[in-house]
Design goal:
Layout: E1 2-4, E2 16-22, H1 26-38, E3 45-52, H2 58-65, E4 70-74, H3 79-88, E5 95-99, E6 103-105, H4 111-119, E7 123-132, E8 135-139, E9 147-149, E10 155-157, E11 160-161, E12 164-165, E13 176-177, E14 185-189, H5 190-195, H6 208-218, E15 222-233, H7 244-261, H8 264-287, H9 291-320, H10 335-340
Parallel strand pairs: 1-4, 2-3, 2-5, 3-4, 7-15
Antiparallel strand pairs: 5-14, 6-15, 7-8, 7-14, 9-10, 11-12, 13-15
Helix pairs in contact: 1-2, 6-7, 7-8, 7-9, 8-9
Length: 350
């Protein structure tokens, strides 16, 4: 079943849409879609692939090998953020799961996150426990057992501090409120996604889900991790040396997120501190011989200032709808100082 991009929603009788955003990911879908279909009961779920203008054989593969999958064909590559926004225009299911194409799901993976959403209307979003697909005893970098952030915008997880990823030894098997849920496997109320404006298309990719989750929290919603549910994510962030493009997007988008969401009293001191922290990060890249990554940090700061006029209006609109002046809740100090100077390498050390 195929739909071209349109603003009209597709009327569905299924309570849950599992939406995989794809761009030239035929090989990944061939490997991981079978588990999604096998462990997602057809009576209550529909599996949807939103295709971001792929030029490989993705569509042909889906039509031939996975005919039960609904295809939303977008006219170009909108990136992660706007790609999902376009797909949501065609969804009317009560709940939507944003699922990366490189995620292997397990039996019962839907149960705990959906039960949390069903049990409490104040819970807007949830994520399962996420382990590394290529090293299954360890947490996965991007989401682990739920995300948090320090006051300066540095994200971390239960199970991952900076580049240190913990082995899963059931130490974070208690359900917990979190600040952000990873976009690799994010359960969300469809209506709430639309209510808060979805993912910020200006980010293109990287940290857009953290920005959206911050908006959810600042408007009074809760987010939870339900570790009874487990999925495995391949991901691309386990390498300590990131690509310059990824470094650029992470640094730029993090600054945009802070500017857009921080309460007025915290904005200037945090952004002033980030200037020095970014300078230290660029210097560290240089000392390690990663010249292109160092350049990417400075390019990210320039891009932030270029985009700042546009984000002044977004900031006003966002803060006007804020009911709780949420700032990163568990760490008012610096993750960088805690990690490098105090030796706190695990979430449980905090």
């Amino acid at each position: 079943m195929t739909n071209n991009t349109t603003s009209s929603p597709h009327l569905s009788t299924k309570k849950v849409a599992i939406v995989i955003l794809n761009w030239n990911g035929a090989k990944l879908m061939e490997e991981f879609l079978p588990s999604v279909i096998a462990y997602s009961p057809a009576e209550r779920t529909e599996v949807v692939v939103a295709d971001n203008g792929s030029t490989d054989n993705s569509i042909a593969l889906l039509q031939k090998k996975f005919p039960s999958v609904r295809i939303i064909r977008l006219d170009k590559n909108y990136g992660f953020a706007e790609g999902y926004n376009q797909a949501f225009k065609q969804l009317d299911n009560e709940y939507t799961v944003l699922l990366n194409s490189d995620v292997e799901v397990t039996p019962g993976w839907l149960d705990a996150p959906l039960a949390a959403l069903e049990a409490d209307a104040t819970i807007a979003a949830a994520q399962p426990k996420i382990r590394a697909q290529r090293n299954k005893e360890y947490f996965e970098y991007a989401g682990a057992a739920g995300g948090y952030m320090d006051i300066y915008g540095y994200p971390y997880c239960r199970g991952r501090m900076l580049h240190v990823v913990e082995k899963d030894e059931a130490q974070y098997d208690t359900p917990a409120d979190i600040l952000w849920a990873t976009g690799a496997c994010l359960f969300i109320r469809t209506a709430v996604y639309k209510e808060v404006g979805g993912l910020d298309a200006g980010f293109f990719a990287h940290q857009e889900e953290i920005d959206m989750c911050w908006r959810l929290r600042s408007r009074g919603y809760r987010l939870v991790c339900t570790p009874q549910s487990v999925v495995y994510h391949v991901g691309g962030a386990t390498l300590q040396v990131e690509s310059p493009r990824k470094t650029f997007l992470n640094f730029r988008n993090n600054l945009l997120m802070l500017y857009k969401n921080l309460p007025e009293k915290d904005l200037k001191p945090v952004m002033r501190a980030r200037f020095w922290l970014d300078y230290i990060a660029a210097t560290k890249f240089l000392l390690c011989g990663h010249i292109q990554n160092a350049k990417a940090v400075y390019e990210a700061r320039k891009a932030f200032f270029d985009m700042k006029p546009e984000y002044e209006e977004k900031r006003r609109e966002n803060l006007a709808k804020t009911t709780l002046p949420i700032i990163p809740e568990l760490m008012r100090s610096s993750l960088i100082l805690a990690f490098y100077l105090k030796g706190k390498k695990k979430y449980s050390d905090l």
